[in-house]
Amino acid sequence: MQFNKEDFKKIVLDRLDKDYGRNIESATREEIYYSVSRAALSSIWSSWSERNKDLYKKDSKQAYYFSAEFLMGRAMSNNLVNLGILEGVKEVLNDLEVDFNMIEDTESDAGLGNGGLGRLAACFLDSLATLGLHGHGYGIRYKYGMFKQKIENGYQVEYPDNWLHYDDPWSVKREADSVEVNFYGHVDSFTDENGKLHFRTLNTEKVTAVPYDMPIIGYGNDIVNTLRLWEAHSPDGFELQLFNKEMYNESVEKKNRAEDISRVLYPSDLGPSGKTLRLRQQYFFSSASLYDIIRKYKTIYGNDFSHFHEKNVIQLNDTHPVIAIPELMRILIDEEYLDWDTAWQVCSKTFAYTNHTILAEALEKWPIDIISKLLPRIYQIIEEINRRFMSFVNSAYPGDWDRAQRMSIVSHGVVKMAWLAIAGTFSVNGVAALHTEILKNHELKDWYELFPEKFNNKTNGITQRRWLLKSNPELASFITKNIGDKWITEFSEMEKLLPLANDSKALKELMEIKHTKKVQLAEYIKEHNGVDVDPNSIFDIQIKRLHEYKRQLLNVFHIMYLYNRIKENPNMDFVPRTFIFGAKAASGYARAKQIIKLITRVGEVINNDKEINNKIKVVFIENYNVSVAEKLFPACDLSEQISTAGKEASGTGNMKFMVNGAVTIGTLDGANVEIVEEAGVQNAFIFGLKADQIQEINSTHSYNPLAELSINKDLKLVIDQLTNGYFGTDCINDFKPISDSLLYGVDGNRPDPYYVIKDFSEYCVAQDMASRAFTDKESWAKMSLINIAKSGKFSSDRTINQYAKEIWKIS
Ligand SMILES: *Cc1c(COP(=O)(O)O)cnc(C)c1O
């Protein structure tokens, strides 16, 4: 893109003047942020509208990514990077005596997602645009994204995330493309003049879906794709008659009910959310997006739907948008008058499904009474899908009633959305090799046996543009200096760094960069936590959602164990460590919140204990989100990826650490398996039970945590300290349930269901090896470099290329 500093400056100043009546001296930082963003946006209008024309062309197939979450983070800097004008814009602001970092920090994160699943969607969009593929996102424009986390007295407290407070310069409202979405009502049937039976839904509650488009800018290629997010409105606004009768609350009731749909992101990373409102959200954006796609399709092919799957493919990100399958059936049958079989052909050739979890509690099931009331016609269609599917199963496995029972989409009063997804799509993929194997051989075994051709693996990836080029410019320059800049769009180039593993000067430089990033993080920690941390200590980081299966508890138990050892022997040899955590707990997840309290309390005690002479520091970073993540990944030495084997589908945090030169301490779970395969087991610290061992122990019920504890007095002491008041008597109510769940099992669970006790001693051994390895600076640097050089596989460009070739068939 052509960039002229003076022109850009003029546009910014002009916007400040025309939009706000300000000059650069009087403008607020928000006004400057807005004007700079809009100035950048104005430079891509023509590329963007060119791109949109392709949506209406016969020969271009479009991929659509349907996702209830897009965890985009900040847009401005990333867009300036991809446009190749970041340095230029910095100079412009510098000329105007405005601090770029301050303007950057003005932007709120678009936190429209919970964690990995939503961030994956964001990385995919970046890769799609950069690879020049026709791929667009569809989702919900939540008014409030992921809650803001504050730590008060050591506890998580949640505050609303009003990210649109200052408006978003990167969204463009497209009122003219609004569509109507229908809820409730009753199903009516009638026969047409040819004697054909039809269905329609009468007396529905109508909600208007208004689209806002965000540009997704490819890196250095003038390509701008679209993320279209829907906002819910009441078609009639508020009711003036009621208002005039002074019935103020009643007058806005309908309006509020409609707007509730896009009001707030469900703050639940995992676990069921049996809320009707959540189903309303899912149907709302699925229906609106399908109408949008069909409208465009019909301008080319009219009522001929035989080409629909040649022109469109829709990837369903987990089960959240799976309601789109019966919705497309409804539109095709009730509104376009296709017969069932033809409509089913269209659907099952258009949709593909990604599974993100094997945790049983996270598989979505909708109670029949909720779905049949909210979406009566959709429920009828689901029943008919199931009726036909069951007869197919019965003919495939005559007499195997158990299997039919297990595979029934509707059973025991619920609709199983994952089953509907597999029945109604042509592709089912897991998100890491191990995960896909577990799906095929265990969780989805029946389904794999019936439809082996549908199953495939697409190991997740991350975009190196945000997670390296933008968030670690120091390391990015080092890489470019050594191998050129092709890696920015072809990440397999990273392997060319490998010869530097034997170049002491380069390794020293690499460690100096790491040190710089650690110093920057230390300043952030000083400012936000008031804690002094030593950049020469090991920065050991675990950042991810707080969940028992991710085992932050294992990490904090190890810290307690180290602390006990130092207290016993203050002069022991010890490699100083800074343990850093960042994690949000789902608001209703009590155990997760207790674990946060444990981490913060252990931190308070240790950080203030003069006796241990700063050997350990423990820091909990508040409000972990994309922007904070961008500061943490580059500053890490040791990446904690310690989930119970078989539980983490893939992980992507593990990949962000790797590209930034952290060494992994972890279990053979999710994509860790592939990370170790690439980097070599000697360049990671691997410990713990393997997934198949856990399967075995589970099925034979042979695990007895109390017996394990009786032979590990160090861990016994740690667990005793939860309830004996060692970390304060005021917290026993929070810590006792943790101890109970490990020792005795609570809420119908087995004791220690995540094998924290079982894996503890191996974890400590691995940790000790990591400490000793760190003392040899050059060999640590070499491990770090090899991790970076071998991270090429984990670019989302690779993942998206595989989706494009193997599932979507787009080029
Ligand atoms: C990458 C990322 C995640 C996912 O982390 P995992 O370790 O894979 O669970 C979650 N939240 C944010 C903000 C991220 O950037």
Automatic annotation (TrEMBL):
The transmembrane segments are: none
InterPro entries to which the protein is assigned, alphabetical = Glycg_phsphrylas, Glyco_trans_35
Instruction: Give the sites modified to N6-(pyridoxal phosphate)lysine.
Output: 656
Could you say which cofactors this protein requires?
Answer: pyridoxal 5'-phosphate
Q: Where in the cell is it found?
A: Cytoplasm
GO CC term (a single one): cytoplasm
Report the catalytic activity.
[(1->4)-alpha-D-glucosyl](n) + phosphate = [(1->4)-alpha-D-glucosyl](n-1) + alpha-D-glucose 1-phosphate
**One MF term in the entry's GO annotations:** pyridoxal phosphate binding
Kindly indicate whether the keyword Cytoplasm belongs to this entry: yes
The record's keywords, sorted A to Z, are: Allosteric enzyme, Carbohydrate metabolism, Cytoplasm, Glycosyltransferase, Pyridoxal phosphate, Transferase
EC number in record: 2.4.1.1
Any single biological process term in GO: glycogen catabolic process
- Is Transmembrane helix among the key words of this record? no
Q: What does this protein do?
A: Phosphorylase is an important allosteric enzyme in carbohydrate metabolism. Enzymes from different sources differ in their regulatory mechanisms and in their natural substrates. However, all known phosphorylases share catalytic and structural properties. Allosteric enzyme that catalyzes the rate-limiting step in glycogen catabolism, the phosphorolytic cleavage of glycogen to produce glucose-1-phosphate, and plays a central role in maintaining cellular and organismal glucose homeostasis.
Stored PANTHER family: GLYCOGEN PHOSPHORYLASE, GLYCOGEN PHOSPHORYLASE, LIVER FORM
Q: What is the similarity comment for this entry?
A: Belongs to the glycogen phosphorylase family.
According to UniProt, the name of this protein is: Alpha-1,4 glucan phosphorylase
- Could you tell me which species this protein originates from? Thiospirochaeta perfilievii
